[in-house]
């Protein structure tokens, strides 16, 4: 990235969207402190590189009219109680992962189930956000029933196959026990392995004891859960990602009490939050990979059988996810899946075009999504 581009990125991410104080004079006249609850630890990249800069920018742009108090680490609401807590205004806003509240947000959880088809953090985040904010009445209805409003949906780092033992080909995975979540269990089965479901927090010990041999998960788990102390081989092929992270969800009454100008300020700053998180995750993954290699982990390329097995699973998993959604009353699941794929291709092309110019990608999100929501 050139010096000029770096300067433009910093300006866009930190100050370009700090609008004149007069925009939110109504809110500034009566300062409002909003709580933001999450189960994430205080040092999580979603908070440090996403929410914290977002909150600061909104406070500055409203002249102190809107402030935020972060309540991380399940100190007030947990992953499973956050949406109810937001709806009841136990917290004014919060972060939530739809997988934990799938009964309350079935449409979002269904779309998250298509995560095997994600094409990167930026493309996945923008595609999910555009679909849910502009083209998914069911998504909005689910949130409305929970007395909540979502501002953006994000994707995390791509999943990889990470194993313990000498793995050099797909044949070596036959009979292995693979820890999975969601539809990735179907991929483990397609490989001739045994899918094993367990909390990620139990996986380190399970690997040590031979309860599982491999993990399908994000690369940052190597550090976060010390998995690099037990794993030896990583197959270097993205396998999609979790794509159900709602970055900022407001209590609906709190949102409606804000002025239109404050809504505009928030919409203008959400893209910066999204790309700030993506940038941090990309840099984090690069750093963790370098450390993993230093620790002796081996990264290998997938063979043709692995690639073919994943392609087959993408088709069967999507069919299964759609059928399950339809059985739960999401009648337009097939149409939503088609829209998701179209938007994923659209945003993957934009991500290729903007490259490492994160500010340019944020600008695209602003014009393509949030300007269409702002009053």
Describe the structure.
This protein is of the alpha/beta class. The chain folds into two domains: about 5-155 and about 240-285 and about 320-370, Bacterial extracellular solute-binding protein, family 7 (D-Maltodextrin-Binding Protein, domain 2), CATH 3.40.190.170; about 160-240, Periplasmic binding protein-like II (D-Maltodextrin-Binding Protein, domain 2, 3-Layer(aba) Sandwich). The chain is built from 15 helices and twelve strands. It has helices spanning about 5-15, 25-30, 45-60, 80-85, 105-110, 120-135, 135-145, 185-190, 205-210, 220-225, 250-255, 260-295, 305-325, 335-355, 360-370, and strands at about 30-35, 65-70, 95, 150, 155, 160-165, 175-180, 195, 215-220, 235, 245-250, 300.
Quickly describe the structure:
Pfam families: DctP (PF03480). The chain is of the alpha/beta class and 375 residues long. It is built from 15 helices and 12 strands.
Secondary structure topology:
Elements: H1 3-14, H2 25-29, E1 32-37, H3 45-61, E2 66-71, H4 82-87, E3 93-97, H5 106-112, H6 121-134, H7 137-145, E4 148-150, E5 153-154, E6 159-163, E7 177-180, H8 184-190, E8 194-197, H9 203-209, E9 214-218, H10 221-224, E10 233-235, E11 245-251, H11 252-257, H12 260-294, E12 298-300, H13 304-327, H14 333-354, H15 358-368
Parallel strand pairs: 1-2, 1-3, 7-8, 7-9, 10-12
Antiparallel strand pairs: 3-11, 4-11, 5-11, 6-9, 6-10
Keywords: Periplasm, Signal
Signal peptide: 1-31
InterPro entries: DctP_fam (IPR018389), TRAP_DctP_sf (IPR038404)
